[in-house]
Specification:
single chain; 179 residues; alpha+beta; 43% strand
């Protein structure tokens, strides 16, 4: 909920839709985690404490707008003992509720290299509404990676647009890596 208020390298090959002049892809390190991702525009950054899994958690957000879409990447590090799949499940539920998702979202597994094979590490497509009531299409992913000391890095990436742009979403999500 408050997470979404914060919304604000090279690629070998993209489909024609992902290579439009309005999309200037750049690699971004997602501190404080080890993740890297591609964004199609120069991002703004913010950091804030939010309740993830019922616990205050520092969430780092990077986001930008390009080609009629909003792109956001959110990362946090969970301390040892937190259940990352429960955190991802709750994060998905909050995201879909915030956008007033309609119908049944389309879900598929999302396990980038070095990502944990969690049940809620998923790519989700949903239709819903923006805060002003206008229609929005969302494509989003959630993933996690174990790091030293029993900690877990969690990542959520989302693309909001008036209409679905599958090729652009594919390029965005394929650019997420755990080095």
């Amino acid at each position: 909920m408050s997470v979404h208020r914060l919304l604000l390298g090279a690629v070998a090959a993209f489909s024609a839709a992902a290579c439009t002049p309005s999309l200037n892809w750049r690699e971004l390190r997602l501190s404080p985690t080890s993740a890297v991702a591609l964004l199609p525009c120069k991002p703004d950054h913010a950091e804030r404490s939010v309740p993830l899994g019922g616990q205050p958690t520092v969430l780092a957000v990077s986001g930008c707008e390009a080609s009629g879409a909003t792109f956001a990447l959110m990362v946090a590090t969970l301390p040892a003992g937190r259940a990352p799949d429960d955190v991802l499940a709750g994060w998905q539920q909050a995201t879909l509720a915030h956008m007033r998702a309609q119908g049944t979202p389309v879900r598929q597994a999302f396990h980038p290299a070095r990502g944990l094979p969690l049940a809620h590490a998923q790519r989700v497509q949903a239709a819903g509404q923006r805060a002003d009531g206008s229609a929005v299409q969302a494509q989003a992913v959630w993933t996690a990676r174990a790091v030293d000391g029993g900690r877990v890095e969690v990542l959520h990436a989302v693309m909001y647009a008036d209409r679905a742009q599958p090729a652009v979403a594919d390029a965005f999500f394929e650019g997420i890596k755990w080095p």
